[in-house]
Amino acid sequence: MDVPGKIVELLYQHDCVIIPEFGGFVANYKSSKVDYDRNIFSPPSKEVGFNNQLVHNDGLLISAISLENAIPYPAARKLVQDFVRDTQRKLAKGKKLVFAKLGTFYVGKDKSLQFDPDSSTNFLLSSFGLSAFEYHELEEYDINKRIQSRINVRKSREGSGMSRILVRGLVAVPILIALVMVPIKTGLLDIDTAKIAMRFTKKEVPVSLNETAAEKTVQLNQASLINTDTNFAEERSEEITSPVDPVAVEEAVVEKTGMVKPEVEPVLSEEPVITKQLIKSSYLIMTGSFKNVENAKKLESSLRKEGYLVGISNGPNGFFRVSINGNTRFSDAKRQMQSYLNDHPGEDCWILPI
Fold first, then answer.
1. DSSP assignment, residue 267?
2. Which residue, 32, 42, 144, 168, has fewest beta-carbon neighbours within 10 Å?
3. Given a cut of 80, is residue 211 above it in pLDDT?
């Protein structure tokens, strides 16, 4: 029979359990405590002590053993008496007896019975599941220190932010310089100004070959009547194979012969009629510019047969311009100009705002 185990069960429900002719176990309430030296907090508990003066039989232990083992009371009492005699015999031999969850019994130097309780067991049911724990002291709360610490954190963040911006700037500057210098050195930014000028400057078509050659022949014949140098006359009357500016030829003859340049009555060219739809437009697509109005009319007739809306207008220096498809928006004019170039490979045209 495990008498110490039964005593442990009874101590959870009672404050005192007596072993007849041996002594009594007393459970004393102990409030929660704080050990400031070790920073340990202990919950409320029942601390077990032993009193060897409590030897009378109160019937609690023997009745519990009788009920648990379903034996008569006298038989249970005999079991307890046998346990007491065995325990006293072992103690007399100097042995230490350990009762689980209760403590340790031994005989002291003064031949008295000593008991060391087991503090690991808490017999207080209201504190069941609670155990002692270690805690850490809270730091002293100083509002001034707390505010100053926040200010320092904010300053450090601002400083790190400026440092990041500076680093990014130092990284970005060489990259930007490289993006600018590489295209310049490699010629990626070179622009074909000749092609741009061909698209957007005024296109003046050379004077008709037949017309220029005839004018030049007349001027050379006049110069040959004054100048007796036959080589000079033969040089000026040779067959012309390329367009020549008649004004330049005439000035060359005057310079060679020394004769005075005669006053020439200006010839008024025909005043062509511009198509009304083209007049109302903001942008014209110019397809040609001619000194001879007949040449301009020939191109006008050819384009009109192709279905274009064509018009002729006066240009600077006595030229006649042929234009098609007037537009009010530049984007439309640009698109139609590209369509014209696709249909007339090898030719050129440009957009003229009016």
1. P
2. 144
3. no
